[in-house]
Write a structure and sequence with these properties.
95 residues; alpha+beta; Enolase-like, domain 1; two-stranded antiparallel sheet
Length: 95
Amino acid sequence: MIARKDYKVLGGKLIRVELETDAGIVRRAAVKGDFFAHPEEAFERAEAGLVGLRIDELHSSARRLFGEGPLAIFGATPEDIAFALEGAAREAQGH
């Protein structure tokens, strides 16, 4: 199942996520938006780290993945990204 979710963070920045799941497992995840991330490679690693996660561990894992290491996000927080991903996961599950 593929689900998409748009989320506006405080201050008006947009986060757009697309999540493909199968049997409760993330098969593909894409996180885009009006925010900036540096270095880009670290953001791509965090995004790739979502693949293979169970939907029920997505929120906490996303907060950790997007909040660690050299990754700096401007215009959104790791919590904002986790919230948007969680919304897409709920849609993927039909909630």
